[in-house]
């Protein structure tokens, strides 16, 4: 994997690797070939990504961009709500004679 776009896949893979490993371990932990099979699983994920059609990769990129936009909008909305709540708390604190 050498292309710049592959960074997103590698990043997602590493981000989710602990979860994948944990779930794999829940099923195959006692299997004598568990470690080798886990490595094969990771290799198959990488090969699947590398063999993925360009149209599907493009769709993946568009979905990732939409998720990022929704996440950013959610963050801004949460900041607005927090500021609003903090402002109301300050007003109530002043009314109660508490230091602000």
The class by helix and strand makeup works out as mainly alpha
Radius of gyration: 23 Å
Euclidean distance between termini CA atoms: 55 Å
* Strand/helix succession: HHH
Task: Characterize the structure shown.
This protein is mainly alpha-helical and 100 residues long. Helix content is 82%, strand content 0%. The protein is built from three helices and no strands. The radius of gyration is 23 Å and the shape is elongated.
For the structure shown, list the relevant keywords:
100 residues, mainly alpha, 3 helices
Q: Which SSEs are present, and which pair or pack?
A:
Elements: H1 6-28, H2 34-50, H3 54-95
Brief sketch in words of this structure:
The chain has 100 residues and is mainly α.
């Amino acid at each position: 994997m050498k292309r710049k776009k592959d960074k997103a896949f590698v990043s997602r893979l590493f981000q989710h690797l602990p979860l994948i490993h944990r779930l794999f371990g829940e099923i195959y932990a006692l299997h004598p070939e568990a470690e080798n099979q886990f490595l094969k699983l990771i290799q198959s994920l990488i090969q699947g990504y590398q063999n993925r059609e360009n149209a599907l990769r493009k769709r993946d990129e568009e979905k990732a961009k939409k998720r990022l936009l929704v996440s950013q909008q959610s963050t801004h909305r949460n900041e607005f709500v927090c500021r609003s709540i903090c402002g109301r708390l300050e007003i109530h604190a002043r009314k109660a004679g508490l230091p602000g």
